[in-house]
Design a protein that fits this description.
heterodimer, A: about 400 residues, alpha+beta, 2 domains, about 55% helix, elongated, B: about 210 residues, alpha/beta, 5-stranded parallel sheet, 4-stranded antiparallel sheet, 6 helices, about 20% strand, globular
Chain lengths: ~400, ~210
């Protein structure tokens, strides 16, 4: 016989009550863990994708939209900017490097981005064996997720569709040749198709379906945005203001916009955390009520234990252990549910591979586990206190 | 050996419920405490168990003055040296018969061999019921489990509160007979509080309480 065995016997005897409390704790924990994982994934994506990009220059409009469209490829661009103005940025002494981005077409919903090989280099992307970086017009390099989802093979050909969403007009007259596939990088590159900027211009300047007078002219060439790396940190104070004031272009700071985005998303995330917290709180309260009722029902059992020589703390320990066990089982089940859901989602979205950052860091989970168990302990403490204050003669004489 | 001297106890200071000047119970003697309801029979058992503290007087069990022990030491002493039999057996529903017997020494921090508990159950005619749950037993069988639980750790003293009141003649005779016989076999003295006249013949000493 052991304290744990005795406690388990009581838990099994009240299986329904035990199960109900475990499920309540599990739901609260799963929700909290889910919010943590989503937050972690969001933060991970933001950090990885914004890394090393000091400024984005594009058409005037919402700076957040510009950053979302040009860096995270999660929104439509604010417009285009003249190539000449974009190229002039290179000559600015405060700027170390630039990468142009030309958007306009997609492949089954994955954006085709006209750019330079530097774009992949900035993210430290590497090619899968057998492939190479694009070098000529209409050559393309696919991100890992694109190639996997669409089953693209090196040397294969495909045509882009007009627009950034699937279903646009197919540019079948100008097929791309796949010359490289990127290794997974955990960045936005995984979900893009890269090609020289010339390819994007070529496709749109030679589209037979567009009347000649409406086709873009080579002398009016444009790009969608330019990603900029500063030469010196001093640039942050003057350069965006200069561009915004003196040109028809807009300069946006990814770091600044990311902070705004965090704030925006933070409200939703805080709400979800609050809901998760309420669930756990209800579970703790439910445990308190359920345990108080269970204690009332077996008060005589506990009085007998005291009668048999157990000190008040020994009996209290038994009750507290019960609360800890229920909440620990609930927390473990909740974390398992959350992990299982992440795996399931990963299987649907990424073909089984858990993306980096899909699961929050173990320390966050450990803290969540400890907090839930702590709440279970608090929930059991009030009934346990009743045991401590029990008047044995009165109780024993009452039966 | 149980010895009481000048013991006084009452729930109200003005009207003492229990007033026992001198009582000595030698080894192998058993005591029946009689009295009408409310006369303090159960309270006397609680005093002997150290669950209540008297306003005056002393209680000795062997060489130990129970009334002089601090609360925690009284708990420990009670666990090691005293067994309980109640009017209702009140076995713990989630536990088997064997576990119900072993839970008492476990709570007292005593190591009791399972084989010893099984032998005791066998002696009480419950050997085949060791793995059963309390609800599968008759009231008489449950009361016998209560007897085993009270004696499994070989206490010096067994306190029995109305142990036969809920039983019919045959079961009452069997339970009290087994209680005293088994208690003697482990060297324990029995103090029973009861108004059940059927069991008086089994006790060598009686104490009558009249109450306030």
């Amino acid at each position: 016989m052991s304290t744990f065995g005795l406690m388990m016997a009581y838990l099994k005897h009240n299986a329904l009550r035990t199960g109900y409390n475990v499920v309540l704790f599990a739901l609260g924990t799963a929700l909290m863990a889910g919010v943590l994982a989503v937050g972690s994934q969001f933060e991970h994506n933001l950090t990885r994708n914004l890394q090393g990009i000091d400024m984005v220059v594009g058409a005037k409009g919402s700076p957040l939209q510009l950053v979302l469209s040009a860096v995270l490829h999660a929104d439509v661009p604010t417009g285009n900017i003249p190539l000449k103005e974009a190229e002039a940025l290179k000559d600015n002494p405060l700027i170390k490097a630039t990468v142009p981005l030309a958007l306009g077409d997609n492949l089954a919903g994955y954006r085709i981005v006209g750019t330079t090989p530097d774009y992949a280099d900035w993210y430290g992307a590497r090619l899968q064996p057998g492939g190479r970086m694009f070098a000529h017009t209409m050559e393309a390099v696919a991100g890992h997720d694109v190639a996997q989802a669409l089953g693209l093979k090196l040397g294969g050909k495909f045509a882009g569709s007009h627009g950034l969403a699937p279903g646009g007009e197919l540019h079948s007259f100008a097929p791309y040749t796949l010359v490289g596939i990127l290794k997974p990088s955990g960045t936005i590159l995984d979900r893009l198709v890269l090609t020289p900027v010339d390819s994007v211009w070529y496709v749109h300047e030679n589209d037979d379906d567009t009347p000649v007078e409406e086709r873009p002219k080579p002398e009016n060439r444009e790009v969608t945005a330019v990603l900029v790396k500063y030469r010196t940190p001093l640039a942050v104070a003057s350069l965006p203001r200069l561009i915004n004031k003196q040109t028809d272009m807009q300069a946006a700071s990814p770091a600044w916009e990311a902070a705004r985005l965090r704030k925006l998303v933070g409200v939703g995330s805080d709400t979800l955390k609050l809901i998760g917290g309420v669930f756990i709180g209800i579970a703790a309260l439910g445990l308190l009520v359920a345990m108080a009722e269970a204690m009332r029902q077996r008060l005589y059992d506990l009085a007998l234990m005291r009668c048999f020589g157990a000190g008040p703390f020994k009996v209290m320990r038994l009750v507290l252990l019960e609360g800890v066990t229920i909440s620990a089982l609930g927390a473990a089940l909740g974390l398992a549910l959350s992990y299982g859901f992440a795996r399931f989602a990963a299987a649907q979205v990424f073909g089984g591979q858990l993306a980096e950052g899909t699961v929050a860091d173990p320390q966050a989970y450990a803290c969540l586990f400890a907090a839930v168990v702590g709440l279970g302990l608090v929930g059991a403490f009030v009934p346990a206190l009743r045991i401590y204050r029990l008047s044995l003669p009165r109780l024993l004489a009452s039966r | 050996m149980l010895e009481i001297s000048n013991l006084g106890f009452g729930y109200s200071a003005k009207a003492p419920l229990i007033d026992v000047r001198k009582l000595r119970l030698n080894n192998s003697q058993h005591l029946l405490v009689q009295g009408p309801s409310g006369s303090g029979k159960s309270s006397l058992l609680f005093l002997l168990a150290g669950l209540l503290q008297p306003q005056k007087g002393r209680i000795y069990l062997g060489e130990t003055e129970m009334t002089a022990l601090p609360a925690a030491a009284r708990d420990a002493y009670r666990g090691r040296n005293i067994g309980f039999v109640f009017q209702q057996p009140h076995l713990m529903a989630p536990l088997t018969v064997l576990q119900n017997v072993l839970v008492a020494p476990f709570m007292a921090g005593l190591a009791v061999e399972q084989a010893h508990a099984l032998a005791l159950l066998e002696k009480l005619g419950l050997g085949k019921l060791a793995q059963r749950r309390p609800h599968e037993l008759s009231l008489g069988q449950q009361q016998r489990v209560g007897v085993a639980r009270a004696l499994v750790h070989k206490p010096q003293l067994v306190l029995a509160d109305e142990p036969t009141s809920a039983l019919d003649d045959e079961a009452a005779e069997a339970v009290i007979g087994l209680l005293l016989e088994t208690a003697e076999s482990v060297g324990a003295q029995v103090v029973a509080a009861s108004h059940d006249a059927r069991i008086k013949k089994h006790f060598s000493q009686t104490l009558s309480l009249k109450g306030e």
